[in-house]
Write a structure and sequence with these properties.
The chain has an 8-stranded antiparallel barrel. Helices cover 24% and strands 42% of the residues. It is α+β, with helices and mostly antiparallel strands. The mean pLDDT is 87. It has a single domain, classed as Beta Barrel (Hypothetical Protein Pfu-838710-001). The chain is globular. It contains 4 helices and 8 strands.
């Protein structure tokens, strides 16, 4: 099962976000930056560490976007944490598909909308997220292929990037966007 290491930090305001973004760009000025518009519809799970969401993702001007069912297992902790996940692309999305999903899994628990800028540093993705009703965040996600060491290929590169972007004192957000949105 695929795994990643994630660390989410809350940013104070737009100025801090721009500063952090510029520090990241200074690390890799020629790297590709991808802009995404994501809507995640979360469904209830009996286990508080298991989340299931239907993600609709629009890249650039693609009006239709893509759909993916994501199921992942991750504890809420105020440090970089491991997540196991399954991604299932929904290739034949049609009007009314969400109604069928609702019949299978129940009414959606919460919907999270975000605009995400993604930079990639080797196996670590850096997400600059603007989340509706929640604010600004930067998220480090080290994607671990089979056999990759969690410490060497996950925790260490995330810590190095965090330091390079002067974010060692930024507050860690232990909760996912789902949990945060449920409290709003």
């Amino acid at each position: 099962m695929p795994k990643n290491i994630e660390l989410k930090l809350r940013l104070g305001d737009e100025n801090e976000c721009v500063l952090v973004y510029n520090r990241a760009r200074a690390q890799r000025p020629n790297d590709y930056l991808q802009m995404l518009d994501q809507t995640d519809v979360y469904y209830h799970s009996q286990d508080p560490n298991i989340r299931m969401k239907l993600r609709t993702e629009v890249v650039g001007c693609d009006a239709e976007g893509s759909h993916c069912l994501v199921i992942y297992d991750r504890a809420n902790e105020d440090r970089a944490r491991t997540s196991s996940y399954v991604l299932m692309d929904v290739h034949q999305w049609a009007p009314g598909s969400d109604n069928l999903i609702e019949k299978a899994f129940g009414k959606p628990e919460v919907t999270v909308h975000k605009t995400r800028q993604v930079m990639i540093f080797d196996n670590v993705r850096v997400h600059f997220d603007r989340v509706t009703r929640l604010g600004l965040f930067v998220e480090f996600e080290a994607v671990l292929a089979d056999g990759m060491d969690e410490q060497k290929n996950g925790h260490k590169p995330i810590a190095a990037l965090r330091t390079a972007m002067y974010l060692d004192n930024a507050p860690v957000e232990p909760r996912g966007y789902r949990e945060l949105m449920l409290k709003v």
